[in-house]
Amino acid sequence: MEPPPPSLLLGVSLVLLCSAGLTRSVTITSGDQSMFEKAQGEKVTLPCTFELSEEDEGPLDIEWVLIPADNQKREKIIIMYSVDRVYDQYYAATTGRMQFTNLDPKSGDGSLDILNLKAADTGTYQCKVKKAPGVQSKKIQLTVLVKPARTKCSIEGSQEIGKDVTLKCVSQEGSPLLSYDWRRVSGTQNLPATSVLNKNTGELLLKNASREYSGTYSCVASNRVGTDECSVQLNVTPPVNTAAIIIGAIIGTLLGLSILCSIIFCFCKKHREKKYEKEVHHDIREDVPPPKSRSSTARSYIGSNRSSLGSMSPSNMEAYTKTPYSQVPSEDFERAPTQNPAFAPSKVAAPNLSRMGAVPVMIPAQSKDGSIV
């Protein structure tokens, strides 16, 4: 088979070139910026403007998808415009925070607004514009940075004259790379000549500190999206007299030990006294009756004699008068020093004998010679 003549090939090529020049498709016209850096909590607008071709007759679709860093994972649709309707319920993490910049995206503006940015929003976003047969897309890299926050300043080392002191500055929050810078607020506002600053770690070393180093120092932590600040007060003092402190500590310890020993001694002594009283109390026998009193024995003896007077007759009265009172046992009766040892019944008055139960009897009188009168 013979090859086509060169003239025919040239004619076909011209037809194809003319067709390509007359045919147009969807074109994205937004700028060349493809990387954005924003701070957490701020708002960002990812641009996606486009122009349609008269040859594109299909329905208009605009999609924003999030491309994961891992190529093995699928793209996630976060918002879409199709057939005059917006769909934004695909990605729960961005629901309510993402919207089209233009309320009518078909006008040629499919840009995306992301509100209240979070660190998790960092990623690659792609805008796709479809109108069959034309299709165009654009990728944008978004990085959400966290401002430095909760920055704390501290002092490490002894704040004494001649010692090395280190001022430290650390931010609890903040996206790298963080940079730290120290400055002196009071006095000359210049850092001491012996100071050494490490901006990456936030440490300021003050060598051979002197009293002139005292003052207020401020640290500023910063990254590409913000700054945070803290301050600390440095007070350089003369060395402390450690010998006096040690002696005072020893004296205080000995004094405390002596007081403690005194308390223990008093407690033990009181405990022994209580124990002795308890032992003496238990030695007393409760079943042994108390000794009889001599006075009570004498009173019982006299009382028995008095009760017998009521039954005395004239015959036994004489015997009673002859019985000496001294026969009462000496151990059962305790007489007063002035008491008469002999109790004379003859001296008892008649009224008293009557009250005691005696019966009066008439005794005939006798003369000296023994005759009855």
Which keywords apply here?
single chain, 373 residues, elongated, four-stranded antiparallel beta sheet, 28% strand, alpha+beta
What does this structure look like?
- With 373 residues, the protein is of the alpha+beta class.
- Helix content is 24%, strand content 28%.
- The protein contains 5 helices and 18 strands.
- The protein has helices at 6-22, 242-283, 294-309, 314-322, 350-355; strands spanning 27-28, 35-39, 44-46, 50-51, 60-67, 76-82, 85-87, 98-100, 112-114, 123-131, 134-145, 149-156, 165-173, 179-184, 195-198, 203-206, 215-223, 226-234.
- The strands form 5 sheets. A 6-stranded mixed sheet has the order 2-11-10-5-6-7, with no helix packed on it. Strands 12-13-16-15 form a 4-stranded antiparallel sheet, with no helix packed on it.
- It starts with 5 loop residues before the first helix and ends in an 18-residue tail after the last helix.
